[in-house]
């Protein structure tokens, strides 16, 4: 019998009422900082689209930036499974953790965990454990799911991965484990790196630091990226998932990353004294 993971941040990061949540998601797409159009449904699967980055703050702050990622995911069609990696903000439980035999609930319905793929990734990894504790109250993965449900209903599965250990070694290991498991099982997947960028600094220095950090992502340079965020104290909360994105891009033959949109919370609210940065991105072959 599968266990249930109930929403931890419904009514806080996003609306707890189904209809109000749909309105908020559609508001995100139509916002001046959003992509400007609603997602496409029932698009044929384009297997060239496999890697994305999305933010994970409250929808009223980061939803417009996230809409760029999810609009392009909608264009790429449903792969069947989404691997969603985010930071473990609490730091409790295993340092890199997934779950099996779970159903995740949101106000938009239920999504099943792809246990077979999760176990295959764990078998191939030196760091990934099966541990539900890091996922109990973690929002970085949860907030991605309603955006996916808005497009695909419940016709997909997820592999949630929470990273408290966000080192180059852990990211490289996890990327290799994902690639091996996907190849072994013959799966079509989309990987989503969930991260926000600099936290609680004035708007202008935040933008400068974040765009420089993102330039390393664009060039698919994980070592340069990691060195830069350490040396310049870039307080991105998901460097580990981001480096997994980069390593997977290199394994799968992508040439660079494309940044769809970058903005800060100040661009949304007008309060620019202390902001958080948000970005949406994908990997491209050309």
Percent of residues in helical segments?
A: 40-55%
Supply Rg. Answer: 17 Å
- Sheet with most strands: 12 strands, mixed
As for the CATH topology, it is Protocatechuate 4,5-dioxygenase, Chain B
Shape: globular
> H/E order of the elements?
EHEHEEEEHEHHEHEEHHHEHE
Q: What is the level 1 CATH name? A: Alpha Beta
Mean pLDDT: 97
- How far the N terminus sits from the C terminus, by CA atoms, comes to 45 Å
Which CATH-level-2 architecture? Answer: 3-Layer(aba) Sandwich
Task: Supply the number of structural domains.
Answer: 1
CATH superfamily: LigB-like
Give the structure's gist in a few sentences.
Helix content is about 40%, strand content about 20%. It is built from ten helices and twelve strands. It has helices at about 20-30, 60-75, 115-125, 140, 145-150, 170-185, 205-220, 220-230, 240-250, 265-270, and strands spanning about 5, 50-55, 80-85, 95-100, 100-105, 110-115, 130, 155-165, 190-195, 200, 255-265, 275-285.
What does this 3D model show about the protein?
The protein has 286 residues and is an alpha/beta fold. It has one domain: Protocatechuate 4,5-dioxygenase, Chain B, CATH 3.40.830.10. Helices cover 41% and strands 22% of the residues. The protein has ten helices and twelve strands. It has helices spanning 18-30, 59-76, 115-124, 139-142, 144-152, 168-185, 203-218, 222-231, 239-251, 265-269; strands spanning 3-5, 51-54, 81-87, 96-98, 102-106, 109-113, 129-130, 157-163, 189-194, 199-201, 256-264, 275-284. Helix 3 (115-124) crosses helix 6. It is globular. The mean pLDDT is 97.
């Amino acid at each position: 019998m599968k266990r249930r993971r109930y929403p931890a941040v419904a009514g806080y990061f996003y609306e707890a009422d189904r209809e109000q949540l749909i309105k908020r998601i559609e508001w995100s797409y139509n916002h001046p900082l959003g992509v400007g159009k609603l997602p496409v449904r029932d698009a044929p699967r384009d297997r060239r689209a496999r890697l994305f980055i999305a933010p994970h703050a409250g929808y009223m702050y980061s939803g417009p930036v996230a809409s760029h990622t999810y609009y392009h995911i909608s264009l790429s069609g449903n792969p069947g499974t989404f691997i969603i990696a985010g930071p473990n903000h609490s730091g409790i439980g295993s340092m890199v953790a997934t779950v099996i035999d779970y159903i995740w609930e949101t106000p938009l319905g239920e999504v099943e965990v792809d246990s077979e793929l999760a176990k295959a990734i764990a078998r191939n990894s030196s760091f990934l454990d099966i541990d539900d504790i890091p996922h109990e109250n973690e929002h970085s993965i949860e907030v991605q799911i309603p955006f996916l449900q808005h497009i695909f209903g419940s016709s997909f599965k997820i592999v949630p991965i929470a990273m408290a250990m966000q080192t180059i070694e852990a990211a490289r290991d996890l990327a290799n484990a994902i690639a091996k498991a996907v190849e072994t099982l013959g799966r079509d997947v989309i990987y989503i790196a969930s991260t926000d960028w600099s936290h609680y600094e004035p708007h202008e220095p935040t933008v400068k630091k974040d765009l420089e950090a993102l330039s390393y992502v664009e060039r698919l340079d994980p070592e340069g990226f990691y060195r830069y965020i350490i040396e310049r104290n870039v307080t991105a909360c998901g460097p580990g998932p981001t480096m997994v994105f980069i390593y997977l891009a290199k394994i799968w033959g992508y040439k660079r990353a494309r940044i769809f949109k970058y903005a800060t919370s100040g661009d949304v609210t007008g309060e620019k004294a202390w902001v958080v940065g948000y970005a949406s991105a994908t990997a491209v072959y050309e």
